[in-house]
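Take one protein record:
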Amino acid sequence: MEGVLRGKEILGLKKAACSYDNPCFYFPIRHHSPVCSFHLKKVIEEYAPDCILIEGPDNANDLLEELVLAGTQAPFAIYYSYHDEKGLVNDKKEHYRCYYPFLDYSPELVALRMAKKKEIDRAFIDLPYEEILIAGQEKESYNDDHYLAQNRFIQRLLEKSDMRSFEEFWEKYFEIEGLTQTEDLFLEHMLLYCVLSRANTSLNELEEEGCLEREAYMREKIAAAKKKYQRVLVVTGGFHVAGLVENDWLSANREDAGKEAGQATVEKEGTDAEVCPTVTPWERKSGSGKGRGTSAWSERSGKGKQLFTEKVPESLTYRKKTEKLHKTAQKDKGVYLMSYSMEAADRLNGYASGMPHPMFYQRIWERIVAQENKTSVTSVNVENIVQRTAGMGEIQGQKDSDWKAEYGVRAETKQDIDGGNADARTGRLKEIYEQTNLRFLVEVGKQVRKKEGYPSAFDEICALAMCRNLAALRGKKSAGVYELTDSVLSNYVKGEYNLATDKPMRELGKALTGKRIGKLADGTKLPPLCRDFEALTHTYRLDAHSSAKKEVTLQIFATQKHREMSCFFYRMEFLQTGFAVRKKGPDLRRKKDRNLIREIWEYRFGEGVMSALVEASVYGGTLAEACRTIAHKKLMEETDAGEVSALLIRLFEMGLAYDSKEGAKRLEKVIRTDSNFFALAATFSNLTMLSDLSGLYQTTFGMEDLKEIVTQKLLTLLIHMTTVREEETQKLLETLKELYRVLLAGGHEEERGYFIDVLRKMKQAPDINASIAGAIQGILYAYGEMETGQIALCMKGYLQGTQEKALWAADYVRGLFFMARDILFADESILDMLDVFVRETSYENFLNLLPQLRLAFSYFTPVEMDRLAAKVAGKYGMTKKDFTRLHEVSKEEYEYGKMLEEKVLKHMGMTNIFCGS
């Protein structure tokens, strides 16, 4: 092995990157880390830079003033968008977007606010967003700390430190312990951790992610700043520091380090060389007699082996040259501020660069700031609530071993502590975390008690005591969020932990995440889409900036303006802004209430409306353009014909004609390749509805050709639909009826002839569904292709055939009446056959057939039912007046009569009064 990366080299990096005497100071951070912000503030005060450079796409430099306006409240985010119209990212030419969130405790925002306060120049120095896309991979968030959380080094470190997750490791050794350390020692630990993480990341991965291009660009910006300013502070992700500093630090003292290490070795696992050192300052020492959670510094001498590959990893040594930026149109790029939420910033909800439990660390940061400013925060005397168990005592961790001998990095000394008093810092740290933990325990207890009636005050006392004890057991200087979570689980959850008892954990999760939503200052630059929204609300005289719910009624078919307002509301709904909800009106998507002529909308301006519009601004400068672009994107990705037509309905509601030639070809391809009959049937029904309503809604349909293609495809597949499942029968009946209605109109003679031929072939199928057989005969009768006598003969075959055939009679009648119920009035013999069938069918069979018979007669209108009832009554010598004089039987009378009948039948040895046996 050529050399070993040892503590002396870390000190070399620290000297090159983090020396107060250097013209450039590189401060390594983890994004959204309170402890990094805590030390960053002190470094800014001590180093007094002339300029602060921050990792972030430099096309957001125009927003630097807006970021620190007094009215801008975190959380908020910089929203980047890019339309790859030239195909520089890939051939798809898509729309891209990402977010750069800021919380109060984000180091970048802390640096910007301090720069504003001290009147220090500041700037973002990373590649523009579109260049990051071209160089690497698409991401939803700009920052991404996965390098620091996912590699072989981290996995092995978690195993050796006996931690459940990287986040728990980070909290113990950085968030908590870091608050008791000086800036000097904290930076040494950060650099060691980040360098080891980078050493275990391959050069190929850095290349694929675009990391090397970004660092080359940042080095160029830093070099330019060093020529202009005497003292430059660079705030960047810790992973990048080793790639930004000139790499002569890497060779410093390597010759001496190699001599001290002796003959280096290479350890391998299988075929992969092990890059991770066997021991780090954060590992636990196995076999310790003083508690499983104590910190174990390596006790081995400087000759203990530190295992790396034969070469120092290229990820530490390689430097890529800056490449020329691509020419992109300004109209294709967007950079805006938008309000953000704690929920979106939570790593547990998918934000790759976030820390979990943002509200917990927000509270920690507020207490840190209060202590720094020597102001009081509402506090509870913890000692008056929890009395330590007598004689319990704290479990003391092992003393630090000689880390310098192992790594060449200093352990904490008295000179590193303010005033030489280590207990003072630890005491302040405990107050910060204990007060925060207590606040969450009380809040969660209060919320759970409202619904469940527990936990008690004693449970809260026990939970806080457990937080302390777990921290001592785990060798932590104070209890953190993981001790808090374990304490709530143990003390608030009663019985087995499952869905029925998890209320405390759910409430804790919501409290740790928080509901806070940021706010932008007045006058913040907005994208054109937001301005279009404000212009339209002004035109339609809508109170668009009130949080109170308001209602508006629209006469959509009587007034052109009301139809335009309806389109506006539908567009806002499509963009998922939460601005408006339709309470009443025609529902074209579900084909309900289409007879209504008014729409009632409820609208309010919520905190998320502008954020949603900013997010959608990548797709267009107006609501119509954004909706059309998003719909086109979805249509181009969709493979189901039914979903395609559902999207077309939404465009129709928004008053937008779909006129994309590319999209039309895509839709035609989807329809031609989709072999799902019912998906095509839904498409046919939707397109037919849109065609029928285009005049009424004053919206161009423009899909007649597509409708013809769907019709042809349906007719091709129809012949195979003679046997369908019961749940699909009604869908097929409705499709047959829709085809009949459409093809009955003029101009479809050829398709109608083909339709009739298909129906005749289907009718001959031996295993045809009875409902479908009845419907087919009803259509043929309506087209004049069958006589009533033929249908009566077919019905007789069902009614008077075998017992199995008779059981399908009700289904046949259902299909027949669904398509041609007027046949019952056209031929008296059909009614007579039904009358005989009902009278002669056994009681059990009648009950089985009754649901289908009821469904069959439900297709008749009230007037038709009166006519039919008169016919039936006439057969038995009764009139309508006789029916009105009939006494209504109450439920009690019916139950009593049923009981008497059962007793009489039992006494007579009969089971049924109709069957006579």
Residues 1-6, 252-279, 284-309, 375-420 have pLDDT under 50 and may be disordered.
